[in-house]
Specification:
By secondary structure, this protein is α/β, with parallel strands linked by helices. It has helices at about 1-10, 10-20, 20-55, 60-105, 110-115, 120-160, 165-210, 210-215, 220-245, 250-275, 280-320, 395-400, 425-430, 450-455, 460-470, 475-480, 495-510, 525-540, 575-580, 585-600, and strands spanning about 355-365, 375-380, 385-390, 410-415, 420, 435, 515-520, 545-550, 560-565, 570-575. The chain has a six-stranded mixed β-sheet with strand order 6-7-8-3-9-10. A four-stranded antiparallel β-sheet has the order 2-1-4-5, with no helix packed on it.
Length: about 600
């Protein structure tokens, strides 16, 4: 029962998650067949009690058949419980495996793919959509088997009572099936819209909660409430439309099937009047079997409803789970070995040394048909060199460094690490050798030590304290009551911007990578702390290639070279003194910042 359903909505790639639990998927239907079989035997026993016991006033028949009914109920109930246990095991473990794989896929999506799906939509797919699929599996294993067997068994038992009764039930089936197909076809596209509206609601909620401080600072609570109300009303309205449509289905089916019951009573009554061999007990049993058929068909309609809703969810989960890799790896057979255990003496697989080159690199953001963000960038960075990158807002500074760890791939040209295109490396291996500290420091609800340890999970306390010392974070950490064991609140709201940035920098330093990239990661630090940080880096990490993106000249003036970006191109490159002499753009930035500092000092 489960396999055709699953192939109908998800195909073999989704079915593999259920194959692991085939034993439970087999046991559950078997026990359900046992439960339904006991239910199907009850009306016949009741017919015997009525015809041979009550009407003939034979108490022993009533007691004997009554005890049989009780035993059958006990046995059927036991089968039902075991069926529920095994069906739940299969469905819950299926959902657990699917959710873990989907989350792993989300963690490996490229920046482009994450932007396309949106955070709210990914959350909906991970939570709500998988729950819908899980419910469908449960219904298919348990309810699908139960109601299919009850429907077919009911018709068979009805036929054994009287063939004419079975023909009445079969005559009503085409009308019932028409109702199911009609309403499910109308509801299917609505379920897709329900999930999309849920995506939108999650997006609004995620933005409002994440930006709660900005909302309060600008007194925009009313505006956010209106946004949420609009999204919530759209979701509520679409759900009401679907449920209103489906509310007509059950009454329509009940009318058809109750008409069948009326026909059974009418034909049976006429047969009894005409002296046919139909007893009162048989009439009672026939009506009970017809009710069972009614019950089975009604619940099958509910299963089809769950199936239809799950189909929309399956499509959405498959869209993420089986999407193509955003970044394709090329030439892995000849790629460099980037692991820490790499044999430096190997000529075929030399370890990463920290050499970087941009060779005629141009870049356009996916889906953006405008001008290139970067155009014909040619740049070489040597091992242990400190390179500063500066330019006006929107000049392409962050876009340039995002190409190094392959957050995006260059549209044209090559980004080379040790003379090899970064596409030749597996992204996770390449990124393992790059430490990045971003402008927005992302911290987690763990201790300060655990946040820093993200840089290297096997680092001891001494290494963590050393990294914090280089990042100028040790002083403020040791002043806290619990020191490195101090708990960080959600998103680091218990720390100042400068403290969060220093912890983020300590995390990057601890990684001990060949490349250390600061994407305007010191903008929240005062000049004295920033200067001490860069001095410590130069002293403690001389062999690491450092790339520093900054808005302030004071942050990069001591760099070995400084690149000036202008509208996505390299306007000039040189030392601080050289650029002051020959670069008008650099000189303008320097003079404007110098005037600001004088104005502040005045």
């Amino acid at each position: 029962m489960t396999t055709p359903l699953f192939y109908g909505i998800g195909g073999e790639r989704m079915l593999k998650y259920l194959k692991k639990y085939w034993f439970f998927c087999l046991l559950a239907p078997l026990f359900m067949v046992g439960e339904v079989a006991m239910d199907l035997l009850q009306p016949n026993l009741m017919a015997v009690i009525v015809d041979d016991g009550v009407l003939k006033q034979n108490l022993s028949v009533v007691l004997t058949e009554g005890i049989k009914m009780i035993l059958l109920v006990f046995f059927g109930g036991t089968c039902g419980v075991l069926c529920g246990v095994f069906a739940n095991i299969a469905a819950q473990r299926f959902g657990n495996d699917l959710r873990k794989d989907l989350f792993a896929k989300v963690m490996n999506l490229s920046y482009e793919q994450t932007d396309d799906f949106s955070t709210g939509s990914l959350i909906t797919r991970l939570v709500n959509d998988i729950t819908q699929i899980q419910n469908m599996v449960m219904m298919a294993i348990r309810g699908g088997v139960r109601n299919t067997v009850m429907f077919l068994g009911g018709i068979l038992m009805l036929y054994l009572q009287s063939p004419r009764f079975a023909r009445i039930a079969l005559c009503g089936m085409p009308f019932v099936l028409f109702c199911v197909v009609f309403f499910m076809k109308k509801a299917s596209p609505m379920f897709v819209l329900v999930q999309k509206n849920l995506d939108r609601l999650n997006n609004v909620m995620q933005e409002s909660v994440a930006g709660a401080r900005v909302v309060k600072a600008y007194v925009k609570e009313k505006r956010e409430l209106e946004r949420f109300d609009t999204a919530n009303e759209d979701l509520c309205g679409m759900n009401l439309r679907v449920q209103t449509l489906l509310a007509f289905m059950a009454p329509c089916m009940n009318i058809i099937l109750n008409l069948c019951i009326v026909a059974v009573i009418l034909i049976g009554g006429l047969a009894v009047r005409d002296g046919a061999s139909i007893t009162s007990g048989q009439m009672m049993a026939a009506i009970t079997y017809m009710a069972m058929i009614l019950h089975g068909i009604t619940f099958m309609a509910n299963i089809f409803q769950t199936f239809t809703r799950a189909r929309a969810s399956v499509d959405r989960v498959k869209e993420v789970l089986f999407c193509d890799e955003g970044l394709r790896d090329e030439g892995h057979e000849g790629a460099l070995l980037l692991g820490r255990e790499a044999d430096d003496s190997s000529e075929d697989q030399p370890s990463l040394r920290g050499e970087l080159e941009f060779r005629d690199v141009s870049f356009i953001y996916p889906g953006d048909e405008g001008r290139s963000v970067l155009e014909h960038i040619n740049l070489v960075v040597h091992k242990g060199e400190t390179l500063g990158i500066i330019g006006a807002t929107g000049s392409g500074k962050s876009s340039l460094i995002n190409l190094i760890p392959r957050f995006y791939d260059a549209t044209q040209g090559e980004v080379l690490v040790d003379g090899r295109n970064v596409r030749a490396y597996k992204p996770e291996e390449l990124r393992d050798r790059i430490a990045l500290a971003a402008q927005k420091a992302e911290l987690y609800s763990r201790s300060i030590e655990e946040n820093i340890r993200w840089g290297r999970t096997n680092a001891d306390r001494d290494a963590i304290v050393r990294a914090a010392g280089i990042a100028q974070a040790d002083e403020f950490i040791t002043r806290t009551e619990d020191g490195y064991d101090t708990r960080v609140t959600e998103r680091g709201h218990s720390l100042s911007g400068g403290q969060k940035q220093r912890i983020s920098i300590a995390r990057a330093v601890l990684k001990d990578a060949e490349f250390l990239i600061f994407d305007d990661a010191t903008n929240a630090l005062d000049l004295k702390t920033e200067a001490a940080l860069y001095q410590a880096l130069a002293r403690e990490c001389p062999d690491i290639t450092k790339i520093i993106v900054a808005q302030r000249i004071a942050s990069i003036k001591d760099a070995d070279r400084i690149v000036v970006l202008d509208s996505g191109t390299v306007a000039d490159c040189g030392t601080h003194e050289e650029l002051l002499e020959r670069s008008e753009i650099y000189r303008d930035i320097y003079n404007s910042q110098l005037k600001q500092e004088k104005g502040v000092g005045a």
